[in-house]
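Sorry, explain these tokens?

___
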Amino acid sequence: MKKNKIISSTNNTLIKTIQKLINNSSYQNKLSLFVCETYKIYQTLILNKFELVYLLISDESKITNKIKDKNFILIKKNIYKKLSFLENGDGLIAVFKMKNKPIELSNQKKYLILNNLQDVGNVGTILRTSAWFGIDAVFFANNSVNIYSPKLIRSSMGYNLTIPTQKINNLTNLVDELKRKKIPIIGTVLENKSKKLSELKKMRSFALMLGNEGNGISNVDSSFCDLLVKIPSINTKVDSLNVSVSCGIILYHLTN
């Protein structure tokens, strides 16, 4: 039986490359590669037809018998600990190729626009929720979190990569294209002029825009919206909902 290659030095070129991929989003984009951890997330990405480039497993891991692809590389435990961003990982680190196919808009589909969302935990929850409710694509606009951040992949359990995603450098261009396709843009704003969510009916197609955790959608960006909605509070002592919670409530209402 062929023995797996084993890496025992932190000076190894591949180890240095993976470290840089974990910490540098520009380097990720340059190589079109990203890093993830754990067998569960690895399996999710394999099932969604992501191209595996490298598979590294700690020499003390107990998951090697689960791996169908036996061309993995063994790494010493100390190297795994240096690469891993988990306290209690299962010993697996994988490098996959990015999918960079542009998203083609359709007035038969549902979209999400994340506008300057920077909390990885919130965005991870939003993406898992979007997958659950059948959102067709998610756009990351105005300095939103890195789509391929290892922490975001972990937070969403890899589901952030099962939905087509695209970074948008110019929100106005996306808005113009949505309007050309007659896809209504819905913004979430806690103002008197906003409609109550209960007044909206199920929609075949829409683009839901969610704003920054602290500041919401700016006045300029809210002017792009065809419709502004709010979720009325029952307890007036609470001034806002977490953005990921709001997302789940709105998507349930619009898709059911």
Remarks:
- The CA atoms of residues 97 and 196 lie 42 Å apart.
- The longest strand covers residues 52-58.
